[in-house]
Input
Amino acid sequence: MANTVIIGTQWGDEGKGKIVDLLAEYADVVVRFQGGNNAGHTMVVDGEQFISHLVPSGILQQKTCLIGNGLVVDPAVLVEEIDYLTGKGVPVTPENLRVSDRAQVIMPWHQKMDVAREKKIGDKKIGTTGRGIGPTYEDKAARTGIRFVDLIDPDVFGELVRTMVAEKNFILQHYLSEAPLNADAIIAEYKGYADRLAPHVTNVSVVMDEARRRGEQILFEGAQGTHLDIDHGTYPFVTSSNTVSGNACAGAGIGPGALTDVMGIVKAYTTRVGQGPFPTELFDETGDAIQQKGAEFGATTGRRRRCGWLDAVLVRNAVRLNGLTGLVITKLDVLGGLDELKICTHYRCKGEEVRHFPASLKVLADCEPVYETLPGWSEDVSGVLKKEDLPRNALDYLSRIEDLLETPIQIISVGPGREQTIVLRNPFV
Ligand code: GDP
Ligand code: IMO
Ligand code: MG
Output
C-alpha cells in the first residue's frame, strides 16, 4: 500500500495539479493539507482545461477528495468552485468532497487586510495573491480564527463575527484607512455558505483512517512550493504555511509512518510569481522566450511569471527538506528550440563557493549563480511517449539533473495534457 506526497520543489506552479490528476487514477483518496485559494492547479484532459484552487485535483478522476485541517478556506470560493466543476460535468457532492471541521475560514476582513497592507507598504510588498491567506493564518496562530465547525453553528459563528469585526474594524479604519465592515451583513452572507457546505464538513482525519483500514491508498496534494515555505523559503517573501512534506501529516491529520513516497515536482527551468529573490532569473530574450512558450502566467492571479534557468541549489534544498524519494520533471517540451541550456550547480558569494541556500537575503543578494552549459535540442518532444525516444541532448539534460540532485527521475512531463507524460515509475503500482 502506497501513500504518496506531491510537493513543489521551487516557487510553485511546477505542474503539481497535472501530476496529481494523473496519479489520482491509482489512488482512492486525494487530500490537500495546507494553503488555500492562493493555489491554482491546472489539469488538461482531452484538450479541456480545468483549474482548481481548493478542491483537490483528484476530482476529475472522481476520487474521495479531502480538504484538510491545515487549509485556510474561503467559503465563497469553494462554493463557486463546486459550481464551476459541476457545470463542466464533474460532479462534486458531499460524498466525494469532504472538508475538515477544523479548517480555518477566510473572512472578509482577512482578504481586505491582505490587499490593504500590500498597498500600504508599497515597494516592500510581498506580492501576495490578495486572497487573505496570511491574515487568516495569523488569526489561527493567535487563536482568534474561525473554523468550519464554527461556521456551521449559527450561535457560535454570530458571536465570533461580532467580536472580530469590532477588532478588525479598528485596524481597517484607523491603520489601513479602509471602510469598516458590517457584522450583520457578513453573518447573513455566510449563512448561505454554511448551508451549502455543511453536508461536506466532517472529521477528515477519521475519513483517512477509515480509508487506510480498508486498504485504500492516499495521495497528498501539496500547494505552493518548498521555497515559499514559511520556515524554509525565502522569508519574508513566502506564503504563510509550511509547504514541505512534513506538513502533510499535521495538515491532514495522519501520522508520519503512513507516508511511503515523496515526489518532488521540478519544472525543467525556474519560475516565480510575486516579489522576492530569484538568483537564476533571466532578464533577456531567452527568459521572454521561455515565458511565452511555457505560457507562464499565474493560474490564480494571471500575473506574468518571472522565468530563469534551472537552479540545482534550490532543488537540492528541496530534496533534503522534503526527503524526496523521486523527481517529476515537467515542461521539458518548453526548452526545445534553445541552442544551449544552463543549470546552476552552485553559487559564488564573495569568492566562496555556496552549496546550500542561505537564510539571509543579504547574503543571497551577493550570490552569483555558477552555471554549467549543456547543448539544447531542436525537436518538439510534446508527442514523445517513451523516454528512449527523447533527443540525445534532452536525455543528457535529464541525466545531469539526476546526478546533481542524487535522486531518480520517475516521471517526465512533455505537455499540459494528461497523456503527455512518460511514467518510469508509478508509486501506486
Ligand atoms: P501547479 O500550481 O503546480 O499545479 O501548476 P500550475 O497549474 O499553476 O502551472 C503549470 C502550468 O503548466 C499549467 O498551465 C499546466 O497546464 C502547464 N503544464 C504542466 N505540465 C506541463 C508540461 O509538461 N508542458 C507544458 N507545456 N505545460 C505543462
Ligand atoms: P500553486 O499551488 C506560485 C506566492 C505569491 C506570493 C507569495 C505569498 O499554484 O503552486 P500568499 O497569497 O500565499 O500570501 O502570497 O506566495 N504564491 C504562489 N506562487 N504558486 C502558488 O501556488 C502560490 N501561492 C502563493 O505569489 O509571492
Ligand atoms: Mg499554480
